[in-house]
Amino acid sequence: MATPRAFISFSVLGAAVVASEVHRKGFHAFAAALSLQPCIVVKMGGSAITIKNKLETLNEKALDTTARQIADAARQGTKLAVLHGAGSFGHFQAKKYLISKGDSHPDWAFGFADTRRAVTTLNIEVVSRLVKARVPAVGLSPFPCAVTSGKKLSLAGPLAQAKEVLDKGFVPVLHGDAVFDDRQGSAIVSGDLILDTLCQGLSPTAAVFLTDVPGVFTKPPSESGAQLIPEILVGPDGSCSLPEMSTAEHDVTGGIEEKLKTAIAVVVKCGIPVYIVQVGTEHAGDALAGKVPKVATVLRRA
Q: Strand 231-234 relative to strand 297-301: parallel, antiparallel, unpaired?
């Protein structure tokens, strides 16, 4: 959304213009105008920004394009909180060492550490691409302050700090992570769980899932006859009609089915639209700028 000319600067000249605008329209109208600044919570899917079947391999084109689109959206006045999945940086290690199931594996401590090495490596890559695009991005890791109890988040840690980071003009960049669990030893805090938590804490105007496909299909998009579902209407109780889903074998966070459950929960709890859109496309750029993408799956209240 383009910033109104009267609100561009808080320099001496800008302050005079703002004062004039407040006097002309009244303080409440001015405050309301400022509150219209869109805030978007963005989830970069692991399969969108990495080559998910190749160990620790980036999808550099998708990541660089997304960084430029986020930079463009930020320059237009959109506030963004970003999180990303692990993709090929973490899922393989987490599955091998059973991190989501606790500390029963004999090499659990090493597996936990290697999983975190992988996911934080990806986080550094994402933050680096954003900073290169002149986005004031800062990485926030859930571990060690975020804690789960029976796989449910009990201490939010840096997730709760994201609002302060955002309010100070930065773009927080969180990620799925291995964390301690006070019942089973360890668990995975997925990017989807983080998105749900952020949406409840930040009161955004929309949430965006960037995926490797244009949205949700009537059946796997690789199959003949698959059709994009442009809109999913969600009832007050979360009811809606969904196609059958499949999950990649090494995906320890639930795949598209879990993402849809998260999107539905966000619609119900926060009353905001959720866009599932293909990474690196003009439609993704529109969603990141707070616009309705033409090609995507939109979840909204019925």
A: parallel
